[in-house]
Please model this.
Amino acid sequence: DQQVKQNSPSLSVQEGRISILNCDYTNSMFDYFLWYKKYPAEGPTFLISISSIKDKNEDGRFTVFLNKSAKHLSLHIVPSQPGDSAVYFCAPSPYNQGGKLIFGQGTELSVKP
Amino acid sequence: NAGVMQNPRHLVRRRGQEARLRCSPMKGHSHVYWYRQLPEEGLKFMVYLQKENIIDESGMPKERFSAEFPKEGPSILRIQQVVRGDSAAYFCASSEAGTGAGAFFGQGTRLTVV
Model:
């Protein structure tokens, strides 16, 4: 009963190129979709979010796209930098559940110089 | 401008002992969430609290686990009679409004049961 799936456990990208991290979900009742970045032995760091009423949100090098009909969202990082190497979690929040987050399994991004 | 503070960062307990994990939310935040990350897995929601109230404990194991967020002081996640399977990283998050617009996480407490 996995509501949020990040099907790529790992992704390797060359520095300067685009990184695309994907996330699929099954529950239609999410109102916000958040992305977190996590380094080993640290807590998740909030990166960017998108409301369910939008289809795109951009913040510097990070852009999140939401396709509600396909129940799919993606995080684009461009240009990728070695410091972006981390595990990225997709974490939607269900309607009316007070900000509770449902995490995907994560995708480990490695950006090579 | 302190973020979410968790302590201790590392905790070792023998089987059968009690573990107490503390979380102080960001200033101005009254909504606290606890998550657990087992090895090789994503984070799993455990409980959502506001001051003096448990709002959603749907992710808490039925036995041995409890949480509180008193009027004064930090939120506490308490695990009684720990077992090896409780070994995990426990993360606390806080938010201002109790919506999905953004929650900020602490560094986590790594519990090891020996």
